Amino acid sequence: MRYSANLGFLWADLALPKAVRAAAKAGFDAVEIHAPDVPAAELRTVLERTGLPLLSLNTTRGPEGAFGLAALPGRNMAAREAIDAAVDYAAEVGAQNVHVLAGLAHGTAGHRHFIDNLSYASARAAPHGIGILIEPINAHDVPGYFLTHTEQALEIIDEVGAKNLKMLFDCYHVQRTEGDLCTRLAACLPKIGHIQFAGVPDRGRPDRGELNYAYVFACLRELGWSQPLGAEYRPEGKVEDGLEWMTALAPEDVATEDVAQGGAD
Ligand SMILES: O=C(O)[C@@H](O)C(=O)CO
Ligand SMILES: [Mg+2]
């Protein structure tokens, strides 16, 4: 397995260039960020020096507590400015994807605005070879967030119909909302652009908690997933002191036949 350090959670106290260097030193194969805090050229330089690809960055969360703008009725102008800013930054820094945050919304109006803004984002990103991601987020952590379920994400992706629009499948959120992870991963796989993980239920280290990631990673290996998996968890103390999971979760000896086939009998 290859891993990406999510710098919104790991080394979040460091400015991005330092955080990228820390991730490279710790043995990560890629990085991903939430919000850029330095000019794109500066981040690009450190990515080139370390050789780490930048898998994704987010559109802005907007005002305090908003968690994104793209599904909000009456905020279309701000949503598109956020998409423009994120895509321009991604193009300059060489990022592979932009994650468009939906925000707190519901119903048909939310759906219609999200579809319109995702069509805009996909068309805006495509000429740069950039993908657009949407992520189902669990309702315990972000009550009222528009996109909560993988099925809903698949329907939206189908309706927009853009080749570069995919799902960010965060195992932590999907486990808290739906469970049945290996089955969901198999069902969503063709529409997944990136995968993240964290311990459940506290979003701590992935080798703690109710979820057996050695098993989940073995499922992913059997499904043929080879992209770096995004470590998006809250470290306990220094990140470097809690990275045993990088080897402990290697899926070598785990048998997955039953679940990968949707369960026996
Ligand atoms: O799971 C999450 O919270 C993130 O992947 C994210 O991008 C929202 O900030
Ligand atoms: Mg996530």
UniProtKB/TrEMBL annotation:
Q: Recite the lineage of the species.
A: Bacteria, Pseudomonadati, Pseudomonadota, Alphaproteobacteria, Rhodobacterales
The family classification in the record reads: Belongs to the hyi family.
Name of the protein in its database record: TIM barrel protein
Record has Isomerase as a keyword? yes
One Pfam family recorded for the sequence? AP_endonuc_2
Give the annotated active site: E135 (proton donor/acceptor), E232 (proton donor/acceptor)
Q: Where is the Xylose isomerase-like TIM barrel domain?
A: 20-248
Q: Which UniProt keywords apply?
A: Isomerase
